[in-house]
Amino acid sequence: MIGSTPSKRAPRRRAGALLALVAAVSVAVSGCAGASLLPDPTPTVDPRPVPGEQGNAVGLAAAPLRGTLVEPGSLTRPSLAAKIDNHVEARPHIALNATDIVFEELVEGGITRYVAVWHSQLPDEIGPVRSIRPMDPDIVSPFGGIIAYSGGQDVFVGMMMAAPVVNIVFDYDDTGLYYRADERPGPHDVILRSAEAVNRHLDLPAPAPQFAYGSATPLAAESYAATPTSTINLRFSDERWPSWGWNAEGSVWMRSQEGAPDLEASGAPVQSTNVVTLRVGIDWSYGEVPKTVMVGSGEAWLSVGGVTAHGTWSKDSATSPIVLTADDGSPLRLAPGNTWVELIPDYGIIEFLP
């Protein structure tokens, strides 16, 4: 599906013949050091109380993509997913801390990009946005709603257009939803007016819950065999090796990239309540473009509250959510809050330090 009708003319290109790429979101924009957040018109609600919080859940509902308690009927809008650039020249990103869920994936050249999903909060702008890749339909289809990207190879764009989401594509948009930030180097300069994009599609339903949520310390039971973790070291390639450090004072994981603190355009450190690490296969049938294999199963780790538990992940189809299962067979429940999902290739490095 496409959200903005493609113009009759050929897609606009940068001077010199560029821009078959699209993306998600991640750059600072002039005058937008820290994109403001609009009040939620109405979020969709998971009617189930958050396990462990039942005493506080009276009259409240759970945000579907965060598990946090919200007023019933306050999150009825659709989710917005966007392909976000993670080239060094695309940093700092815009409004990553306002996301509900972020997936980090390997792309060509050993670097990574993000599929970032906003729902509980809706920033005015996000970026920088870049082009689509072959695994992205399998990532975004369970959310429904909207996907924003700059473009991409025809075969990948066709795959995304066939997914059950509304496509908002920079190459095709002539309605002013996107602009290029003058202070950003191209092609890492495409910014989406995200609040306006969502407000054009309030007829779409809210997303279904993607993970199970528990209390603020969901791994406290001995059956999870969770181990204390101060640092999570990950390596996608020699080009990309992010890490997460536990901040006990803030009860969050703080992100670094290639040894340096990862900061938003606002100057705030990028942080997450939950870090989900999945061991995934890579399909090389698209030449130099790696496709993360999302339909299947593999090893999984959930890091929350300064500890990590091992388990497995599974995903039955493109439209199915990821299911996390502990080694004892019980569900791996996340803490209410935002989540980063690290899709580490089967040849990559995953390390948890006490």
**Mind telling me which CATH architecture this is?**
3-Layer(bba) Sandwich
CATH superfamily: YerB-like
Mean pLDDT: 88
* Content of β-strand: 25-35%
Tally of extended strands?
Answer: 25
What string, H for helix and E for strand, traces the elements in order?
EEEEEEEHEHEEEHEEEEEEEEEEEEEE
Indicate the percent of residues in helices: under 10%
Examine the coordinates and then state which fold CATH places here, giving the name of the CATH topology. YerB-like fold
What structural category arises from helix and sheet content? mainly beta
Shape, per Cα inertia axes: globular
- Give the C-level CATH assignment: Alpha Beta
Largest sheet: 11 strands, mixed
- Please give the radius of gyration in angstroms: 19 Å
Distance between the ends: 46 Å
Number of domains: 1
Uncertain runs are 2-56
Helical segment tally? 3
Keywords: Signal
Domain DUF3048: 75-194, 233-341
Pfam families: DUF3048 (PF11258), DUF3048_C (PF17479)
Signal peptide: 1-35
Nutshell version of this structure?
This protein is mainly beta and 354 residues long.
Could you explain the architecture of this structure?
With 354 residues, this protein is mainly beta. The chain has one domain (37-353): YerB-like (YerB-like fold), CATH 3.50.90. The chain is built from 3 helices and 25 strands. The strands form 6 sheets. Strands 4, 5, 6, 8, 9, 12, 18, 21, 22, 23 and 24 form an 11-stranded mixed beta sheet that branches. Strands 13, 14, 15, 16, 17 and 25 form a 6-stranded antiparallel beta sheet that branches. Strands 1-7 form a two-stranded antiparallel sheet.
